[in-house]
Write a structure and sequence with these properties.
10% helix, three-stranded antiparallel β-sheet, 3 strands, alpha+beta, 90 residues, single chain
């Protein structure tokens, strides 16, 4: 932890994120600028789920692309509203 001390100055913190069973559905990243959402990224992360029968080196086991979406993407409006209501600082 001593090596990371600089990250905790000025209110820095660690976010404890529990494992989610729905991880194979992908991960949504919310990109913000000050207090507004500026976009979203949807990516299928496979590093934390069991490899397919074809093996860890198979194409099926490789991470999917990150699909970038604008802040106005309809499927993310509920998330956008929650983020902006919280001031996007969490």
């Amino acid at each position: 932890m001593a090596n990371c001390a600089a990250y905790f100055t000025d209110g820095g913190c660690i976010v404890d994120q529990p494992f989610q069973e729905r991880l194979p559905d992908g991960m949504i990243r919310c990109y913000t600028g000050v207090d507004k959402v500026v976009g979203f990224g949807h990516q299928f992360i496979k590093a934390l789920i069991a490899p397919p029968p074809e093996g860890a080196a198979s194409p099926e086991a490789q991470p999917g692309p990150r699909i970038m979406q604008s802040a106005t993407a309809p499927e993310f409006q509920a998330l956008r509203q929650k983020m902006e209501a919280s001031g996007c600082r969490r």
